[in-house]
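Objective 1.3, modelling of assemblies. Example input:
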Amino acid sequence: MSRSLREVVFVDGVRTPFGKAGPKGIYAETRADDLVVRCIRELMRRNPSLPADRVDEVAIAATTQIGDQGLTIGRTAALLAGLPRSVPGYAIDRMCAGAMTAVTTTASGIAFGAYDVAIAGGVEHMGHHPMGEGVDPNPRFVSEKIVDSSALVMGATAENLHDRFPHLTKERADAFALASQQKYATAVAAGQIGPELVPVATRSTEHGWGLATVDEPPRPDTTLDGLASLKTPFRPHGSVTAGNAAGLNDGATGCLLAAEDVARELGLTIGMRLVGYGFAGVEPEVMGVGPIPSTEKALARTGLSIEDIGLFELNEAFAVQVLAFLDHFGIADDDGRVNPWGGAIAVGHPLASSGVRLMTQLSRQFAERPDIRYGLTAMCIGIGMGGTVTWENPNWEGVEK
Amino acid sequence: MRDALFADEVVTHACVRFVRVPGLAGEIALITIDNGHDHTRPSTFGPGGLASLDAALDEVAAHTPAPAAIAVTGKPFVFAVGADLSGVPAITSADQAREIAEAGHRVFRRLKDAAVPTFAFVNGAALGGGLELALHCSYRTISGGAFVAFPEVFLGLVPGWGGTQLLPNLIGIDGAVSVIVENALAQNKTTPGPRAAELGIADAVFEPADFLERSLEWAAGVLRGDVVVRRPEVDRLAWDDALARARQIVQARTRNASPGALRAVELLDLARAGAEGDAFTAGTTAEDDALTDLLMSDELRAGLYSFDLVNRRAKRPAGAPDRMLARQVTKVGVVGAGLMASQLALLLVRRLEVPVVLTDVDQVRVDKGVGYVHGELDELAGRGRLSPDRLNRLKRLVTGSLDKAAFADADLVLEAVFEELSVKQQVLAEVEAVVSAECVLATNTSALSVTEMAAELQHPERVVGLHFFNPVAVLPLLEVVRAERTDDATLATAFAVGKALAKSCVLVADAPAFVVNRLLTRFLGEVTAAVDAGTPVVVAERALEPLGLPMTPFELLSLVGPPVALHVAERMHEAFPDRFAVGAGLRRMVELGKASVFSGPGVVDPDLAGIDAGDSPLTAEELRDRAERALAQEIRLMLDEGVVQAVQDIDLCILLGAGWPFWLGGISAYLDRAGVSEAVTGQRFLPKGVASLPA
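Predicted structure (tokens):
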């Protein structure tokens, strides 16, 4: 048989407002799987021309796949969301790049011809599932020095980056963090962030039902002085603080992917066209540099160069780790192409969900920016990896060179 | 007073949050009503709960800026299930009763009279006062998984926190009659959310998965004017016909013996003036009067007593052994393949989902029995009650055998053969020869001695009586008979099986005819004796009408079947010749093969002419008095004999096995309040206040 690769498009993306993890967070009494269900239902409501039985796969990522994030969450969330029983689903894990991997994996299936339409997303309820819950690292990691003992503590890997790149100072990290908060606040005020949010009814046995409609983590009143005074929990007199890193958060994301011809047949909007992707491994103790080789890989395989990228949506697990990326590619700390609407330092980073937040945000910027042809979403991943997905703006009005 | 009355109130708290909804300028004051327990303890309104809602509405009123709307919703799976009735037994005066009635009106009315639109988001069960709370709001959404009902009339009350006035003025009188009267008197039928929306009780229905989010979005649409709620105009000309229908239902179901049902119809009549302004004030005042009268009525107190028996005592049978002693039942044998045995086999296979083997004396009967069960299963599947896979599973589990050796690995064998002691003894001996020493042997006798049946067996301790009631699939009672030598493991297994069969089990001693048949036979014996003595059949037929029993004595006789009734009467006459007569008329009916004394409605069968030709007829009142006195005497004797643990068990049996109405409290509450028990036995069955007004 002969076959041809199909173009894959990102149709639409949504997310729940992100919450602060912990007993006082907005989602303290809300189940993780219910957050996913809200995203799936909202995707179906926003795209009424898509018949539910045309969804060929539901891939949902979670780092800790137990309890309300267990039981093959892609399948169970699909059932709970009311999708037909004929729609299959699965759970997927690549730590912080879970949702990103859900997208690349289902997109590959679409390109290959195994699916027409897929839902991909992720969730992390870090209040219900603190980082490292239930892990049992093999003692060989340490005995054979397979990884450095700091590799499993993400904040420690960020401190290691400051060691490796002494010119990426705490002051630069704090300045980047402050800008993230400010850019996020500006985007919210401009109504750029908000339309992609799915309101979530939040239960509290003490206070009654509420409705989450906005992100809980941002600190719009952040100042440089305030950032400078924060503790450095991972190392005495270190550089990494709660202010220049993403917090511990709860939230879920979801997006709709389709073969481009199917999207047109069904009358679905085309938010972005998938160009390529790459994943790469690095030394686990400096996992934050992961996006550098993954980006180089993704670009090399698609014949693009870093200069072709007009918008960067980089996950801000730690400011220093984004700075390392920018430094490598010769991009200024405050380059306007980078995270124009702020990033995870402001909005939060519910681990496995974040990849689709980056994509949704990029897609919404593409709609506003017909002058830009290519964008990139990238993130670092625990145990030393990076992931990059490159996208083309279907609204681009330029001329092919 | 509040504290003293409702000392144990599980208070339903009302918590307010001011929420922002996308697309809406102002805030919505979202009130959650939640008693702090999970869905197994639904939220109710007692004085504390009403005060909390009142305070929440104060908080909303004091909030600046004023919210755009007020919305009320419940904890997961439950909106609210009505008034907290746990404190009712402590209400001793009409003033106290009125205060409760008025408090509900006062607080709920704040939602109706609020300065901003009000919404009820009915996320789960909304019963009684919970539904009334929702009806006071300007708009309602309902979850596809929710259900609503007004159970008040079933209990002997009225939906008197606005329900009788608001519902007919929202959905029309005919729908209101269905919900308030007809459904309540049809075993408390509830209305699912989508149907409630069709009836007009709710304005919009949303799926449970995102019910609250969609409700808030919908409310924002209503407030913006984007969503327009259209309700059909209430047809004022429909009142007379609907009320006539209501009266017919009340007459048919209660024989007008329940003051609550009659009062509800009166209040619905009043609602024709509307539910606004002075009309609503007049309507709610009439509701206050009705609630006060009913809360201070013996009928309601008896109704609550009955409700408690059926919902609590029935679930924790008095005297049952530790359930841990029960043996697992993985296969069941049924001896006999007649109609009763086949019905039991059907019930057993559907509920226990284990192999059920039927035996009988010849292949034709066995095939007929198995065929009956398979046919019933097919019919259930045809009605969509069984999936094809489940149908296959259940049919495969039911088999027949001529050889009792098929019982060898059974854990329970139930015999349902001809009602003759020697036959049953022989059957049990044959079964014992093939089964294990632990296999429980159960007999479905209606009047024979279980102890005698077991006497000749090697292991009489594993014999127990399981007395089912016809129709087996419908009547919820199971009398579990402990014979003299029945051991605890056998008894525990019997209770476990009964529970698995979804029956309410009552432990009874191995006394003649146990509880229900003994009382009904005594009662019917008085009626047939009166007819023998010359009381006209039509007089006897209607003599008990004031009690509001579900059927007349002769309807009961036809249901039981004259041959069975005669058999039991003869057995009882043997046991207690001075109290149980065997009516000559009954004997004649059986001889002539008559299933009923009537050949047509109210027409005595000409073949039975003269059965009431005696020369000392009783009036209806005299017969009723005699029947009531006989019941009181028999109950006292049964208690003295230790047939049951307490009179509550007799009442439970009568409620569940004979279907006698709640307002009689089984029967002892009625006999106490009518003074019959004291006149006959010198004492009450229950202290004042238990199933009646306190002293």
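The longest strand of chain A covers residues 249-259.
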